[in-house]
Amino acid sequence: MARDLPVRITQDPSQGFTRRPAPSVRHPDLVLVLDAYADDHVRARVYGGAVPAAFAEYTAKLEVAPAALRASAARLRALWKRELVAYEPVDDRGVPLPGRPRLPYAVRPDLTAEPEEELRDILDELVEQGSYLLCEELLGAGGPGAERLRKVVLDALAGPGPLRIRVDSNLFLPWPMLCLPAEQQDPPGKDGPEGLLARFLGYRHQIEQTGGRHPAFPDEEESALPPPVPVVSLNHDKGIDPEGRTRAAEVAAALADGTVRIERTRRHELLTALKSDRLDEQLVYFWCHGHFRSPDESGSPLFVVQLSDHRDIDAHTLLARRAAASGPLFPYRPVVLLNACYAGLPGSADLTNLGGALIRAGAGGVLGPQIEIPQMFAAEYAYAFVTRYLPGTLTAGEIAHGLARYFADTFRNPLGFTYALHCGMDRRLERVT
After folding, report:
1. Residue 24 domain-assigned?
2. Range of the domain at 136
3. How far apart are CA 312 and CA 268, in angstroms?
4. Which of 26, 49, 54, 425 could cysteine-pair with 208, CB 3.0–4.6 Å?
5. Are 243 and 199 in the same domain?
6. 3-state SS class at 357
7. Which residues contact 16 (CB under 8 A, 6 or more apart)?
8. Model pTM score
9. Residue at 375 is within a domain
10. Which pLDDT tens digit goes with each residue over 281-307?
C-alpha cells in the first residue's frame, strides 16, 4: 500500500536551481570604487558596461586627501543652503523686495514664477561649484592613471542615456549634486535654467552609494515571501507643521491606503520595536526634526532625529538595541525614507551614521536629504515618493531619479538632487501576486 514517507532535507546542493533572483535586481552600468583609507590619497577603480573594454582595469591613485574632499563636500552642501534655501531677494539698498516672500526658494516648491535671471544666477553658482568638486578636486587630482580614469568616467557620465551607477566607497560625497563640466553639456552652450539643471548628475543618472558597508545578509533569491498586505511605518513628530501648510497629512493618508500602517510618535515606541525579533515593515518613513550633536569636544557630530517627545535617536541608539541580535531586524529589507526636516550635513557627519546603522539592521536602502531641506519641499517629495513606491512597480532608484527630473523639469527646482540614496537602488516593494 502506497504511503508518504517523512522527508528531512539536510543539504540543498542545487541552491539557485529552485530559486530565482528578485526581478528588480540588475548589474549597475557603472561602478566607481573609491578607497579612502589612506590619509594622503584615494585609490580609484571603475568598471561596468558603460566604460570601454580594455586590456587592463581603469585604476588610478588620486593624489588628494580624503579629508580635503570631505571638507569640500561640506562646503558644497553649505553653499546650497546659503545660495538657494536661504536666499533673500533685496533691492539695490539691501532692503527686502515688497510683494515677495522673505525666503521664496524655501517656501515655494514651484519656482517657475521666480525671476529667470535670478534663478539662473543661483543655479550657475551651484553648477560651477558642483562641477569643480567632481572634475577638478576629485577626478582632476594628479597621480598614476588619473588622466585616463578621468576621461573614461566623464565620457560615461556625459553619455546620452541615463546610467545606473553604484559608488562603492567609504567616502560619502553628494553625488547627485555634482555636475558635468560645461564643455560636456548636451547641447553645448545652453546656459538657461533648463540647461544648467541638466548638468547635475542627479538629473542624468540613477545613483546609489554603499558607504563602504556590505552587511552579511542572505542574497536576494533567499528573501522571505512578502506579507499578504504591505506593512509600512510612520515615525513622526506631530508637532511639525501644526497649521497644515505642507502635505504631511496627505503623506500619512497615503501610507495608510491599502496597507497595515504602524505609527510611532515617541522614542520608547521605536526602541521597543528595535528590540523585537523582527519588524515586517516594507517601507519605513521618518518625518521629524534632525540635527547634529557632538558627544564631546573632540567627537565627530552624530546625526540625531527626534520624534514628538524630542528625545535623541542616533546610530548608537539603534546599534545598542541590536547588539545581541542573531539576525536582521527587517527580513523584508525595507527602504527607509529619512525625511528629517532641517537636517544639514556639516564636516565629517553624513547620513551614513544613522543610515549605515539601519542597513546593518536589515534595511534595503536609506533615502534622505543632504542639506537643510525646507519643510514644504520635503513633504512634497515624500508624497511623490510614497505614492510611486507603494504600488510595487518601480524601484527606489527609478523613483529617486524620476523625482529629481520631475521637480527640475516641471518646477525648475533643484532640491530633488539633494536626496541621496544609500544602497537600495534596485529595492522595490514586493506584493503577493
Report:
1. no
2. 30-209
3. 11
4. 425
5. no
6. helix
7. 221
8. 0.90
9. yes
10. 999 999 998 887 766 554 567 788 999
